[in-house]
Design goal:
This protein is α+β, with helices and mostly antiparallel strands. It has one domain. It is 35% helix and 18% strand. A four-stranded mixed β-sheet has the order 3-1-2-4, sandwiched between helices. The longest helix is centred in the C-terminal third of the chain and has 17 residues.
């Protein structure tokens, strides 16, 4: 006898595909003191805000809380993170994983092109 799985017992079951999100965190300007950050952003305008761009399968709020607690955290967000900036990403979410990976890179490049200091965005 074949074992029935939960997926087969529920007719029309579809796993959640569009549950990934990109997010942007406002960082303190003190991050510019880091040599690594200056090397990543050689043309950054020191008058413009600094950002961290990331992607997650959680909600952006949960992910930001994890960063601040130190759970799978970016050291930049843990030390310099101020708050989320949903006005820069909310209209993009949710999306499939592959789209989130690409959007993270695109958003990082766009912000750098505008002269912002940006970390993350692998």
């Amino acid at each position: 006898m074949k074992r029935r799985t939960l997926k087969r017992l529920r007719p029309g079951y579809q796993p959640a595909q569009d549950h990934h999100s990109v997010y942007v965190v406002l960082l303190s300007g003190a991050i510019r003191r880091s040599r690594k950050v200056r090397r990543l952003n050689p043309e950054a305008d020191s008058e413009k805000p600094c950002f961290y761009v990331g992607m997650t399968g959680l909600t952006p709020e949960e992910r930001f809380a994890n960063h601040k607690k130190g759970d799978k955290a970016s050291s930049f967000v843990k030390r310099f993170g101020i708050r989320l900036l949903p006005e820069l990403y909310a209209h993009l979410n949710p999306m499939p994983f592959e789209a989130a990976v690409q959007m993270e890179k695109d958003l990082t490049e766009d912000l750098r092109r505008c002269g912002h200091t940006v970390v993350g965005g692998h």
